[in-house]
Design a protein that fits this description.
five-stranded mixed sheet, alpha/beta, about 15% strand, 2 domains, 15 helices
Length: about 350
C-alpha cells in the first residue's frame, strides 16, 4: 500500500513539472540557449536537477551569478531566500539560520547567500537535517533514542560505548580555535555523547551533498603537521609511515585530515574521553572515495574507528525508522534524496 501511495505521489509530481527549461541554466547574454552545467558528473547532474525542481516548487525565482557583467542563471539558485525561507523545510529552521547569520562570529564561515539561496549547498542541508535533532535531544527520551541510532551506525564493536547524545550543534568552530589548528576548519555538525560508564566524547560531522572534500592545505601547514606528528595523544592514531608522509608533505593536510585533527584537539582541550570524525554524504557521491581511503590507510588498526563514512541515506533512514512520527525527516528525504522525479526527466528527455 505504501509503495502504491509513493508511486501515485511521484506520478502527481511528474504531472505538474511544466517545461524542462524551468530546470536548466541560461545566461543574460544568450537567454534562449538552455543548457546543463557541463562540468557536473552523473550524480551532481541528477542532484542539481532535483534541487532545481525543489526550488521551482517553492515558487522562488531563479537566481544567478555574475561573471564579467554577464548573469548566469542556474536553476538550483533562488532569489529572495533570505526573506522567504524557501531553502528550508521548516520555518523554525529558517529562523535559526537567520539567527546564526545575524550573530555570526568573526571566525565563523557561514555564508549568507549560500545559506539562503543555494538549494544545492550542503550548508543549508546541514541546518535542515541537524536542527530537528537539536530539538529532539532537548528531552531525555530523545537523547537516548538518538544515542541508540548512532551506536548502531558507528559503534558496532562498542568501542565508544554510546549511551545517549547530550548535545547536537551546527557549524562549530571553537572559540579557542587558535589553540587548535589556528584556522577556520569547522565541524558542519557535532554530537556530544555520554557513555554507559559516564565518560564523554564528541562526534564531528562533515556533510557533503554533491561537493567534494577540499584539497587545500591548512593555512598554517607547519602547525597542522606538528599537531599530527608531535602531540603524543594525537600522533599515536597515525602509522609511522603515515607520519613520515605528513612530515615530508607527501600527504597534504587537506580538509579531511584537518577535520580529524580539529576533532582530536577539541577532545584534548575539553578533556573528553574519546572522539571520532565522520563524513555523511549520499551513497552515489563518489568524489571523496580516494581521500577517504588515503586517510583510513594511515590510521593504526587500534584507531581506525576514529574516522568513518556513512551514507546520507542510511543515516536519514535510521532516523525515520526511530522517529516515524517526526515528519520533518521524511520531508528532508523528499527534498534531498528522492531522485525518482529527476531520474524520470533524465530518462525521458535523454538528458
Amino acid at each position: 500500500m505504501n509503495e502504491l501511495k509513493d508511486q501515485i505521489a511521484i506520478n502527481n509530481e511528474i504531472g505538474i513539472l511544466g517545461d524542462i527549461k524551468n530546470y536548466m541554466s541560461y545566461s543574460s547574454k544568450v537567454p534562449n540557449k538552455y543548457y546543463f552545467v557541463n562540468t557536473d558528473n552523473v550524480f551532481t547532474k541528477k542532484a542539481r536537477l532535483l534541487q532545481a525542481i525543489r526550488r521551482w516548487q517553492t515558487g522562488a525565482e531563479c537566481g544567478f551569478v555574475v561573471n564579467k557583467e554577464i548573469k548566469y542563471y542556474h536553476p538550483n539558485l533562488a532569489l529572495g531566500g533570505e526573506q522567504s525561507g524557501c531553502n528550508f523545510i521548516h520555518h523554525e529552521i529558517f529562523e535559526y539560520a537567520k539567527f546564526r547569520v545575524a550573530n555570526k562570529k568573526k571566525y565563523e564561515t557561514i555564508e549568507k547567500n549560500r545559506m539562503f539561496n543555494n538549494f544545492l549547498s550542503s550548508q543549508p542541508m546541514a541546518f535542515n537535517l541537524f536542527f530537528p535533532l537539536m530539538e529532539i535531544v532537548k528531552c531525555e527520551e530523545g537523547k537516548r533514542r538518538l544515542g541508540s541510532i548512532m551506536a548502531d551506525l558507528l559503534d558496532k564493536n562498542n568501542v565508544l560505548g554510546i549511551e545517549y547524545i547530550d548535545e547536537v550543534g551546527i557549524e562549530f568552530i571553537p572559540d579557542y580555535y587558535e589553540n587548535c589548528l589556528n584556522d577556520k576548519t569547522a565541524m558542519d555538525a557535532f554530537f556530544r555523547y555520554v557513555t554507559t560508564n559516564g565518560n564523554s566524547g564528541i562526534i564531528a560531522i562533515e556533510t557533503k551533498y554533491t561537493d567534494s572534500l577540499g584539497y587545500n592545505q591548512a593555512s598554517d601547514p607547519l602547525l597542522a603537521i606538528k599537531t599530527a606528528t608531535e602531540i603524543d595523544d594525537i600522533s599515536k592514531i597515525f602509522t609511522a609511515e603515515g607520519k613520515e608522509k605528513i612530515c615530508n608533505r607527501d600527504i597534504k593536510l587537506s580538509q579531511i585530515y584537518r577535520n580529524l585533527l580539529l576533532t582530536e584537539t577539541v577532545r584534548i582541550f575539553e578533556g573528553l574521553d574519546n572522539s571520532m570524525s565522520i563524513v555523511i554524504a549520499p551513497k552515489d557521491n563518489a568524489c571523496n572515495k580516494r581521500a577517504e581511503k588515503q586517510l583510513m590507510e594511515i590510521l593504526t588498526e587500534q584507531y581506525k574507528y576514529k574516522f568513518q563514512v556513512i551514507s546520507l541515506e542510511s543515516f536519514v533512514n535510521a532516523i525515520i525508522r526511530e522517529f516515524p512520527n517526526e515528519k520533518i525527516f521524511q520531508k528532508f528525504y523528499h527534498r534531498y534524496l528522492d531522485f525518482r522525479t529527476a531520474e524520470w526527466l533524465i530518462e525521458n528527455y535523454k538528458l
